[in-house]
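note to self — DONT lose this again. spent like an hour looking for the file last time. sequence + predicted structure for the chain T wanted, 80 res
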Amino acid sequence: MIKELVLYSTTHCHLCEKAEALFVNYCHAFNLNIIDIADNDLLLAQYGTRIPVLLSVDNASELNWPFDEITLKEFLANLT
């Protein structure tokens, strides 16, 4: 079963672009839904100063920026 992940981000965010680029190597095992927080006042209030944030839909665990490939791998390994 493919795990569902959400990447909270916004346009013109270089950190969000970096986070998405890190994730590209793992896209075969996960379904990534990118949500622009600028379109939602509640998400903007919750994640506005923390984006990019990767969220596991299955268990609600979050990986906050800054993260690197090693941290991302560890986070994803704990989801499988």
